[in-house]
Automatic annotation (TrEMBL):
The lineage of its organism: Eukaryota, Metazoa, Chordata, Craniata, Vertebrata. This is small monomeric GTPase. It comes from the Eukaryota. The keyword Protein transport applies. It is found in: Cell membrane; Early endosome membrane.
Length: 215
């Protein structure tokens, strides 16, 4: 693991955060995570069953941040499982599809649920995905921005296909998370540092250069 850690991990503080993705089915949650963790996009992404677990490490100033990411299924029949994944999470990305007003309604319901039941200090970001389909949008940027402002959410329009704002939304979350104390410390430095997709157990993250990668 020397190539991934090197001197940086030796001198940096290491913080570990649980992050959950929520949203309606087919809004692109798994595609956003795949783009962030592996730098890949698949036009036809299979629906997540239950949830998938992945990790990715980024560097912010003098801190190495490890995201432990739970990508939850959007189908209604899995809704009852969601609290198991967002319980104890320090961050959440609620994803909607800018071409679907129904998906924004669903996203708002997720935000309400998080505000009532999740960690009171959770950092919530709203992602308007599929920005590459702007010519088909039914949700205006300002509408979503106003809602985000009213609820103290981070908001960006993203595109897993073109990579627009995918890294940026994770980095914006990283900047808002408390980093006064290491989350897990050195004991976690060597554990599961490559991204793992439970749907593809043999796959590993190729984005291992940490601070050397562009945001």
């Amino acid at each position: 693991m020397a190539a991934r850690g090197g001197a940086v991990l030796g001198s940096n503080k290491i913080c570990q955060f649980k992050l959950v993705l929520l949203g309606d089915t087919a809004v692109g949650k798994s595609s956003v995570v795949l783009r962030f963790v592996k730098g890949q996009f698949q036009e036809f992404q299979e629906a997540t069953i239950g949830a998938a677990f992945l990790t990715q490490t980024v560097c912010l100033d003098d801190t190495t941040i490890k995201f432990e990411i739970w990508d939850t299924a959007g189908q209604e029949r899995y809704h009852s499982l969601a609290p198991m994944y967002y319980r104890g999470a320090q961050a959440a990305i609620v994803v909607f599809d800018i071409t679907s007003t129904d998906s924004l309604t669903r996203a708002k319901n997720w935000v309400k649920e998080l505000q009532k039941q999740a960690n009171p200090n959770i950092v919530i970001a709203l992602a308007g995905n599929k920005a590459d389909l702007a010519n088909k949008r039914t949700v205006e940027f300002q509408e979503a921005q106003d809602y985000a402002d009213e609820n103290s959410l981070l908001f960006m329009e993203t595109s897993a296909k073109t990579a627009l704002n995918v890294n940026e939304i994770f980095m914006a979350i990283a900047k808002k998370l408390p980093k006064s104390e290491p989350q897990g410390g050195a004991g976690f430095a060597g554990r599961n540092r490559t991204g793992v997709d439970l749907n593809e157990p043999t796959s590993q993250s190729r984005m291992g250069q940490c601070c050397g990668r562009g945001n």
